[in-house]
Amino acid sequence: MNEPTFLSTQTLFRKWLDNNHNKETELFVGFYKIESGYPSMTWSESVDQALCFV
Description:
Blueprint: E1 5-6, H1 10-20, E2 29-30, H2 43-50
Parallel strand pairs: 1-2
Helix pairs in contact: 1-2
């Protein structure tokens, strides 16, 4: 099983998508809980970016 990739902002996710959307078939994205203290984009932010590459 793949390890999750944690992206702190939707900007970083968008950059990943720009660079990899035509050569990767999947990305296992991880999300930190707000209480964790780690910076993390939200699920809805990730969907906003991913839909640009459908």
